[in-house]
Amino acid sequence: QPARAMDLGEEESGAPGEEQRRWEEARLGAASLKFGARDAASQKPKYQLVLEEEETIEFVRATQLQGDEEPSGPPPPTQAQQKESIQAVRRSLPVFPFREELLAAIANHQVLIIEGETGSGKTTQIPQYLFEEGYTKKGMKIACTQPRRVAAMSVAARVAREMGVKLGNEVGYSIRFEDCTSERTVLRYMTDGMLLREFLSEPDLASYSVVMVDEAHERTLHTDILFGLIKDVARFRPELKVLVASATLDTARFSTFFDDAPVFRIPGRRFPVDIFYTKAPEADYLEACVVSVLQIHVTQPPGDILVFLTGQEEIEAACEMLQDRCRRLGSKIRELLVLPIYANLPSDMQARIFQPTPPGARKVVVATNIAETSLTIEGIIYVLDPGFCKQKSYNPRTGMESLTVTPCSKASANQRAGRAGRVAAGKCFRLYTAWAYQHELEETTVPEIQRTSLGNVVLLLKSLGIHDLMHFDFLDPPPYETLLLALEQLYALGALNHLGELTTSGRKMAELPVDPMLSKMILASEKYSCSEEILTVAAMLSVNNSIFYRPKDKVVHADNARVNFFLPGGDHLVLLNVYTQWAESGYSSQWCYENFVQFRSMRRARDVREQLEGLLERVEVGLSSCQGDYIRVRKAITAGYFYHTARLTRSGYRTVKQQQTVFIHPNSSLFEEQPRWLLYHELVLTTKEFMRQVLEIESSWLLEVAPHYYKAKELEDPHSKKMPKKIGKTREELG
Ligand code: CDP
Ligand code: MG
Quick one: where's region Disordered (predicted)? Predict the structure, then answer.
């Protein structure tokens, strides 16, 4: 009796022994099953699994994402087709037949909402059409915003190639700390945050003829703020064209927001995707991913695999595990190319995911959410979705922001599944149960504006002269408490006065393209005469968490190398130490290699540092060095981060103001030290609320740098004499 596929919501048939049935039988039986026609399930599995018995995961087919193309459809593109001229590829995109109609609609309406399936050519084609149509005459520019840096870079590179120009000439991109544009650049792909900053220098966007807010459905904080600002600019610049492009979600809301702007629909090309769920929840989704990828590889017909994970660390771990197992399996399996893609991946590595898979091999792309809608990778037939993403969350009551791995929304899960049906009928394997999908996933993702701190944005809006934030035209307003807290924080940082007006210091803070606390720290380095060191700390903090690497086979060496950088005082000084030694080595890559330091991260830190240094003059901070007096560096950091402080109590660390329980991250140089007072750069919620990048401080400094915020009384320590030396587990105990 072959495996039975389940329709969503039905009970399992429960035949005895069914649990033991191997995954590939269930799946293959199920896979050949058309919706509503179960007889096909009696087919024998055609593929042999070469993995060990226990390394399988059982999936059941449950639903199908309906496509508009026949399930059989054309086969995946062959090598020959992929080599077709780039212009032929352009003409084959779903948006192409609508070129004239679209241009006419743009000509006739100031604001147009454009809805189209991911991969239909919105991002790469529409700006080119506008360019061809003459929208960039008289030196006018076209902006196209992307929520993610990687997308801006890779899309610009693609478009430059399609237009046969050098990247940075007619087509360029601009992301924070990296500007690949020139005087000649008329098509500017940029992050939404960068366009937001453009308002500071050009409040009416006068040099732009078209602004395309792309990936609008992502609803990032910056995109949401752009909506309000652009709507306003459009009112007094009738010749400005505004395009809001989105995947097939939420377009009616955008239309309503922009005074009932028309919606232009690009019909998609979508093949059906069979969706499979696991029978039981998976305890370790990373391990489950690796096993499932190999299962797909050995049992499924050709077609590339796309895996969704939540971030760089996880992706690197998964890739390493996959490569490891492939090596062990050796010639027992066909070649499997394992390619990561995440925000900090260097661009040459990013480009690799778009290269065609060599014949006989299979490609597996292990990606963050970026591959959900921003990037389209040709040839994907299988999607593996553990159902998680990394999300910021914010508690306006405590002012604590944290990054958490959370279940993705249903909308997100369906976007992910859809990625499998672009070139042919595909399959999506969800590493959770059908029950979990129905009962545990939210319908849609909450817009970022409702789950993040707003300090940055409020400072920017204030610098743009927008004072009444409560009545700003938000698509979805942020929680009132969050706005209030942002104002309070900016007041505490000295960026706003008691009337809520921007101060001189606030104006300077807005000039620096970093968070208010970081800008404050940089400004404070003037007072403590240590701007050289603070610039380094700031640069190192912005490449965050990817400084050290720890190869599996050299864990001991790597850990020793890291510990060798430790300096008393804490992690910020460790970062400073790493950078200083690297600079002394002549910025050597060999030095990085020997010290288990990531060369690319360091190179990026150097770029960031140079850019920040270039801005110092604008904010009237002179270059100075502390000459080894690290107390000054620590005080300057405290001047920016006095909001993020914790003290050691009898029951572990508590944040000073809100009395929240927090823990030092095991990777911190202070993990065993457990100083009484400390500040942290950020909180990350994994198994606990971990403070990342912590610095030992003295409570008296808080009174020195923020007398308006702290009272001497709340910094008293009643148990100071009797504090146990160590609280919490040591690194060894944690394993
Ligand atoms: O924006 P939308 O999702 O509608 O589509 P797009 O990003 O403009 O992608 C159109 C086509 O360009 C897809 O077939 C992509 O595979 C291709 N593309 C590419 O080959 N390399 C890139 N860096 C970006 C897009
Ligand atoms: Mg796009």
Answer: 65-86
Q: Which residues in the chain land under pLDDT 70?
A: 1-58, 60-84, 544-545, 718-735
Name the pTM for this structure: 0.83
Q: How far is CA 204 from CA 201, 209, 530, in A?
A: 9, 11, 38
Residues with Cβ < 8 Å from 496, sequence gap 6 or more? 462, 487, 490, 502, 503, 506
Q: Which helix (H) or strand (E) holds 273?
A: strand 273-278
Q: Where are the beta strands (DSSP E) in 309-468?
A: 336-341, 362-367, 380-385, 388-395, 400-407, 426-430
Model pLDDT, residue 64: 67
Measured in angstroms, how far is the CA atom of residue 378 from the centroid of ligand 1?
9
Task: Decide if 420 contacts 273 (C-beta within 8 A).
Answer: yes
Whole-number Å distance between alpha carbons of 171 and 168:
6
Q: What is the pLDDT of residue 587?
A: 97
Integer Cα distance of 356 and 89 in angstroms: 14
Alpha-carbon gap, residue 191 to 554, rounded angstroms: 37
Residue 253 is encoded by which pair of tokens?
Answer: 């809301």
Atom of ligand 1 nearest to the CA of 125: 8
**How many CB atoms within 10 Å of residue 617?**
10
> Which pLDDT score is estimated for 13?
31
Rounded distance, CA 509 to CA 521, Å? 10
- In angstroms, the CA 13 to CA 353 distance is 41
d(CA 593, CA 597): 6
- The residue nearest atom 10 of ligand 1, judged by CA position, is 121
Q: Is the ipTM of this complex over 0.95?
A: yes
Q: How much is the pLDDT for 71?
A: 57
What phi, psi does 287 have (nearest 5°)?
-60, -45
Q: Which residue, 538, 604, 607, is CA-closest to 575? A: 538
Residue whose CB lies within 8 A of the most ligand 1 atoms, among 212, 265, 376, for a mutation test:
376
- State how far the Cα of 654 lies from the Cα of 342, in Å rounded to an integer: 33
**Angle CA 604–610–611, to nearest 5:** 95
For residue 625, the SS3 value is coil
Q: Is 429 helix (H, G, I), strand (E, B) or coil?
A: strand
Q: Report how far ligand 1's centroid is from the alpha carbon of 424 (Å).
A: 17
Q: Report the pocket of ligand 1 as residue ranges, CB < 6 Å.
A: 93, 116, 118-125, 154-155, 158, 354, 376, 378
Per-residue pLDDT reduced to its tens digit, 60-109:
666 666 666 665 555 555 544 554 688 888 999 999 999 999 999 999 99
Distance 244 CA to ligand 1 centre (A): 17
- Tell the burial category of 733 from Cβ atoms under 10 Å away from its Cβ (0-12, 13-18, 19+): exposed
CA 326 → CA 24, 46, 298, distances in Å? 19, 22, 11
Question: Is 599 in contact with 593 (CB distance < 8 Å)?
Answer: yes
Looking at the CA of 116, which ligand is closest? 1
Length of the chain: 735
> For position 5, what pLDDT does the model report?
28
3-state secondary structure 108-145: HCCEEEEEECCCCCHHHHHHHHHHHCCCCHHHCEEEEE
CB atoms within 10 A of CB 198: 17
Query: Cα–Cα distances in Å, from 34 out to 67, 667, 698?
Result: 13, 51, 68
